[in-house]
UniProtKB/TrEMBL annotation:
Keywords: NAD, Oxidoreductase
Superkingdom as given in the UniProt entry: Bacteria
Name of the protein this chain belongs to: D-3-phosphoglycerate dehydrogenase
EC number from the UniProt entry: 1.1.1.95
Occurrences of domain D-isomer specific 2-hydroxyacid dehydrogenase NAD-binding (ranges): 148-326
PANTHER family attached to this UniProt entry: D-ISOMER SPECIFIC 2-HYDROXYACID DEHYDROGENASE FAMILY PROTEIN (AFU_ORTHOLOGUE AFUA_6G10090) (PTHR42789)
Family, similarity comment: Belongs to the D-isomer specific 2-hydroxyacid dehydrogenase family.
Domain D-isomer specific 2-hydroxyacid dehydrogenase catalytic stretches: 78-348
């Protein structure tokens, strides 16, 4: 009997170096044939030494669509699966070429290590019969904790105090902000992350309101949150607004100048969701205006990220900016890498 070829997986964006053995062992245990991209790994020489005999190694810029397609088709065999993380763009042209039936291994599944899949052309994937799998829930605790850190840093002026202390300055007076229990947290999008944040904020004494199309009055009562019936209602009552919804055509630009102006005086905005949900130009204008009700914002996700990173928020003292790191705890990334491997293997084996 002729032995069937093993399904081939292209790991276009690997787990970080310290988690790479966990990830690769999971795929190999499932009997998959691996090609691993060295891009973004900090010690490619060590990976070559430790893994060169067990997997095929390549090196290309995963953010370059042409390079990704070139790697997919490099040896004329194709790959049954592509695994990504971060925001590696997988577009319609890629799906069209990668699913060519003349390839011995036409593409069958794309796996995203993480919840967000807005960088993957889902319509093109469906059109070409390709499954898209992801790992929702694996980063929920990490992102919820980060949102609380954003809130505390903004509320208590931690970055400003740190900078002043490093200069040897000792202020004569300090601002006296309200305590957490005196602020109402508004959560826009009440999925796994929103619920994780609500539980932690409630434990710290914060009253919580939430708005989501899927949140019922019964669920809100059971979870101890107040259900806001609309976005305007949530903006009217929240002292802190935290965003936890996916980027879709419906949510793109959801918070613009009009919505920001409707927020409560002295309010704070936290965004660990997706950059395109907030109009960054409108947000920057609001933060520059001392008369605007929005007092500060903490932003972890941007319209343009990675090598294209730019934002009108640069340089604003009341904008706390971080490079999309909310979900990057060791536990979250390990769980995400393993679950992504398992979901790809479930499709291929």
């Amino acid at each position: 009997m002729t032995e069937q070829p093993r399904p081939r997986v292209l790991i276009a964006a690997a787990a970080p170096d310290d988690l790479l053995p966990l990830e690769l062992d999971r795929y190999l245990a499932a009997g998959l044939d691996l090609t691993v991209n060295l891009w973004r790994l900090t010690d490619p020489a060590a990976v070559r030494r430790d893994w060169g005999g067990r997997v095929t190694l390549t090196d290309f810029d995963g953010f370059d669509p042409a390079a990704l397609l070139g790697a997919q088709l490099a040896d004329g065999l194709g790959y049954d699966a592509v695994k990504t993380r971060a925001a590696v763009p997988i577009r319609a042209e890629f799906f069209a070429a990668a699913t060519d039936p003349a390839l011995p291994h036409p593409l069958r599944v794309v796996g995203q290590s993480g919840a967000g899949v807005n960088h993957i052309d889902g319509e093109a994937a469906a059109r070409h019969g390709v499954r898209v799998v992801n790992t929702p829930g694996t980063t929920s605790v990490a992102v919820a904790e980060f949102a609380l850190a954003q809130l505390l840093a903004l509320l208590r002026g931690l970055t400003e105090h740190n900078t002043a202390a490093h200069r040897g300055a000792w202020p004569k007076t300090v601002q006296r902000p309200r305590q957490l229990s005196e602020l109402r947290l508004g959560i826009l999008g009440f999925g796994l992350i929103g619920r994780a944040l609500a539980a932690r904020a409630t434990a710290l004494g914060m009253p919580v309101s939430a708005h989501s199309r899927s949140l019922t009055a019964e669920d809100a009562e059971r979870l101890g949150v107040r259900r806001a019936g609309s976005l305007p209602a949530l903006l009217a009552e929240a002292d802190v607004l935290s965003l936890h919804l996916p980027l879709t055509p419906a949510s793109r630009g959801l918070l613009g100048a009009r919505e920001l102006a409707a927020m409560r005086p002295g309010s704070l905005l936290l965004n660990t969701a997706r950059g395109g949900i907030v109009d960054e130009a409108a947000l920057a204008a609001a933060l520059r205006d001392p008369a605007h009700p929005l007092a500060g914002a903490a932003v972890d996700t941007f319209e343009y990220e990675h090598t294209a990173f730019t934002s009108p928020l640069f340089g604003l003292p009341n904008a706390l900016l971080t490079p999309h790191v909310a979900g990057m705890t060791r536990t979250a990334m390990a769980d995400s890498a393993v679950l992504c491997a398992d979901r790809i293997a479930a499709v291929l084996t």
